[in-house]
Amino acid sequence: MNARPDSAYAREEMDVSAIMKSWKRWLVGAVVLTGTGVGAEPPPTNSAQGTRLHGSERFEFVNVPLTTVEAPSPVGSKCTSGLASVAGGRLLVTQSCTPDGGGIVLKRFVEGPALKGTSFRAPFEGRSVKLTVAEVRCHEDITLPTSACTAENVQAGKARWEYRVIASPADKQEIALCPTGSGYALAVPNAWSTSGDLLTNHDYFTFACAPRDEGVSGKPFFVGGGVIAKCIDWGYAPWAGATSTSDTIAREYHQLCTRMAVADYCGEGRSNTLDGTPLAFMGPEHAAAISPLGKLPSTLAPDGYALEAVWTMDACGLARPVCLGKKRWDSLAAEGTCLDASLHIPETKVTCEMLNLSNLGDRVLVSYSPFIDHALVTFRRGTTEYITTTAVEGNPGESAGGTALGGFELAPGLGGQDPDSFEPLRVEGPILSATLSTDLKQRMGTFIKPLYRCVTSTGRNLLTDSKDCDLVPGYTLKSIAGDQGLEGFVYSSVDTTSSGQRRPLKLWRHSTTGVFATSTEAPSGFTFVRDLGYLPAVGQLPGRDL
C-alpha cells in the first residue's frame, strides 16, 4: 500500500487542483462564447510598427512542439517530463510525481515562475535548438496600466507571464532567444509560416519577444521585440477574450494586426516599414464613426497622420490590405513583389480615400501613419543629368519599387523648366523623412545624419550631407514647401554584425562636366567622391526603434 503523502505535498495537490478547476473553467468559457465581431477599439497608445514578427532574429520562425517539454522535478520528488499546453497565453505543464520515499502518484500543474528550468526542443536549420526557460516574471503591458500577476488576474486574462529563454542550437553556443527589447517573451499558441501566416495547430506554440520601455519622465516608449507581442498588448491576442468572442475571430484580427504592424502589404512575410514608425489604428466601429458617407479621412487629427491602408480578410481567408492611401503610394519604397507590375492588391488603381468603408464588412483594421520612410528615387535626363529626391508623386498601382518605375513623377519645383523630360531610373530605397519629429531625432541621436538638396540657377542638382552644398560654386540650398533644403535623413553607421542589408548612398562626380549624382550605383562616366551614409533597412540597427 502506498504511503500517505506528507502535509506539504498534500497542500500542493489541493492548491493545484483549485488552479486546474479554474483553468478548465477558462477553457470552457473560451470555447463556448460566440459572436460576430470584435468590440474593443485598442487606443493608439505606444503604437509603433516593427519589421519582425517574433523579434528573435536568428530564431524568427522557430515553432515549438509542445510534446518536447522537459520539466524538472521539485526537490523530494521524481516526476515525468510532463505534458505542456498553451491556452489564452498561459503556458502550463502537467507532471505525474512520486515522493522520493514512495507513495501516491500525484498530478503536478506548473505555471509561472515554477516553470524555471523547463525546456523544449524545436526544429531549427535542419537540426534542432533547445529552448530553456531561465527566468519568469510578470509581463509589462504596452497599454498601461499593467496588472499584477495574481492568480485571479492571470486566470481572467488581465495579466500574463513572460519568459527569459536561452537558446542552445546544435553548435552549442547558448544565446538569448530575445536579443532586443525586454529580453523576455510571451508564450503564444499555434504556429507561424515563414511568409507570416498564423497556422492553426494546437500542437505548437512560439515565444514572441516583448519590447522594452525606454521612456523617460513618465512617457513610456517601447522598443525592440516583435509585433506579435505588441498586437497582444494592443488588444488583438490570437485567442478569445475581452476583444473577441471566438478563437477564430481572434486569430483573424491578430493576423490583421501583425500584417498591419509590419506593413506587409503583400502577405508574404516582407516588411515595408521601418522599426518604430508611429502608428494609429482602429477597428470597424471607430473607423465608421470618423467616416462620413463611408469615406475615410485622408488625415487623422490631431497629429496629422496620413491614411496608410485598410486591412481585411480576403476571399481565401488571408489578411491583406484592400488598398493603400494616396500619400503611402507617394512615399513607398517597397520591395514587396505584389507591388510591382503584377499588382496583387485587389484595388490597385484605387486609393483608400476613394473606397466606401461600408462595403468591406466587419473584419477591418484601418491604419494611419506619418510615414517616416520616404522613397528616394533617381531620375535621369540624357547621360549626365541626374536628380535624386524624395519629392516625387506616385501613381497608385504603378509606383511601388520593383520594375514599375514609370509610376513615379518629379514633384513640381524640380527638374528646371522641363521636369517631364526626366525619367525615373531607380528607386534607391527609403530614407527617413525630413519631417521626422524632434522627439524621434533625439532618440536616434548620432545614428542618423541629414541630407541636403542643392541646385544651381541652370538647374543642376546636388544631394549631399553638407549644408553648405560642399562649397561648390553656384550651388545653393533648394527649399520645397518650406523645408529649407532638408531632403531627409540616412543612417550615419550600421551594425556590421547584423544580417540586415547595408546599402551605402554615395556621391559621384562626372569626370569631364563636373556635375554630381547621388545613388547607390555608379553612373557611367562618374567617379566616386565619398559615402554619404546608409539607407535604412531591416536589421541595420537591431533594437534601436525610432
Question: Can you walk through the features of this model?
Answer:
This protein has 546 residues and is α+β, with helices and mostly antiparallel strands. The protein has a domain at 373-535. Helix content is 14%, strand content 32%. α3 packs across α4. The longest helix is centred in the N-terminal third of the chain and has 26 residues, at 7-32. It starts with 6 loop residues before the first helix and ends in an 11-residue tail after the last strand.
Entry summary:
The protein is of the alpha+beta class and 546 residues long.
Percent helix: 10-25%
Sheet having the most strands: 7 strands, antiparallel
Secondary structure tally, helices: 7
Q: Which percent band covers the strand fraction?
A: 25-35%
The structure class reads alpha+beta
**Rough outline:** elongated
- Low-pLDDT parts are 1-44, 539-546
The total strand number stands at: 32
Give the integer mean of the pLDDT values. Answer: 81
Radius of gyration: 27 Å
Our measurement of the CA-to-CA distance between the termini, rounded to an integer number of angstroms, reads: 66 Å
